[in-house]
Amino acid sequence: MPRAPALLWLLLPGLAALEPISVGIAIGAASALTGYLSYPSFYCSYVECCPGDGHRLNATALRAQLDARLFGQHLAKEVVLKAVAGFSRNSSPKKPLALSLHGWGGTGKNLLSQIIAEHLHPAGLRSKFVHLFLATLHFPHQHQVKLYQEQLQKWIQGNVSACPHSVFIFDEMDKLHPGLIDAIKPFLDYYEQVNGVSYRKAIFIFLSNAGANLINKVALDFWRNGKQREEIQLKDLEPVLSLGVFNNKNSGLWHSSLIDRNLIDYFVPFLPLEHKHVKMCIRAEMLSRGHAVNENVVEVVIDEMTFFPKEEKIYSDKGCKTVQAKLNFHWDTVMGDTKAEG
Ligand SMILES: *[C@@H]1O[C@H](CO)[C@@H](O)[C@H](O)[C@H]1NC(C)=O
Ligand SMILES: *[C@@H]1O[C@H](CO)[C@@H](O)[C@H](O)[C@H]1NC(C)=O
């Protein structure tokens, strides 16, 4: 009963002091109140609540956020909007939603996960219904895999029992021990219930670099053939995101067991970022810090980035990953200079 009880507890001390007859009325009023407020916005503006089943994700708002914050990823946007909005509209999904995000570091996988989380739970990554796991941070020791397995299963079970709309994000999937994949698998499957808990409304997001080199190659081929990046379609990447990746030992065998059983619903490719996209990241970061965009700073920061391949230098090695750190480093210097000039 995690949904509304605290409101009742707030009212109960007051009830004890009342005459029996008014207690009856007060209890009636209280239950009418909690019934009316099946998603009690007053209570929930102080304490984070799990969204009720009638709650729908706002796809317009999600699209607007993706447009404003995620750059150069027309495919990822399209897939995620379709997947997440569709899942949120479905009142009886047959399995939890499982997304697998692939691409080079800094291309926006973490950002996209964060944006999805924020649209399901306004507190985003800080929400108690959103759980982020980093393979190397949370599960670092090979010899403790047994312990991690038990822990992880207990957590997933406990959290989904408390809120069916829980979101689980697993970063660095390539580094996650196969035993832990096995531990997650039962929750992703088409079971109505596992030990009395239904996992069908939960969302699992897996992040990895697997397939990144192949995705980059497709993008580069398009570029070399004089075609627009936006012309790249999902079908151009399908072969890459199915067999190519998963038979390659270096990119991790973890997928095979999930894929064989069709437990992943969508593969989401992230393209390597060009100069103009990195510049967009830099400008967005300035704005998010409450500063006006300063093109001098943009140039200084972008000049420090490295691009590949060696000859053409089209794509950023680290995507937008180092933008924040570089901006921290250069901001004062450059702003100081501009002030001095002015
Ligand atoms: C969805 O989001 C849009 C844009 O932020 C907003 O204008 C609209 O009112 C929202 N719709 C609902 C039902 O909240
Ligand atoms: C929910 O998951 C977190 C880890 O993200 C864990 O610390 C917590 O104990 C879990 N809650 C329950 C009720 O299992």
Can you walk through the features of this model?
With 342 residues, the chain is of the alpha/beta class. It has 3 domains: 6-43; 59-269, P-loop containing nucleotide triphosphate hydrolases (Rossmann fold, 3-Layer(aba) Sandwich); 275-341, no CATH class. Helix content is 53%, strand content 9%. The chain has helices at 5-16, 20-36, 41-44, 59-69, 74-89, 109-120, 135-138, 145-162, 178-188, 212-224, 234-246, 254-260, 275-288, 295-303, 323-341; strands at 97-102, 130-134, 167-171, 203-208, 266-269, 307-308, 315-316. Strand 3, helix 9 and strand 4 (203-208) form a beta-alpha-beta unit. Helix 1 (5-16) packs antiparallel against helix 2, helix 4 packs antiparallel against helix 5 (74-89) and helix 14 packs across helix 15 (323-341). The longest helix has 19 residues, at 323-341. The chain is globular, with a radius of gyration of 24 Å. Residues 1-37 have low confidence and may be disordered. The site of one 2-acetamido-2-deoxy-beta-D-glucopyranose has 6 residues, from helix 8. InterPro entries: ClpA/B, P-loop_NTPase, TOR1A_C, Torsin, Torsin_1/2. ATP binds at residues 103-110. Residues 273-329 form the Torsin-1A C-terminal domain. One of its GO terms (biological process) is nuclear membrane organization.
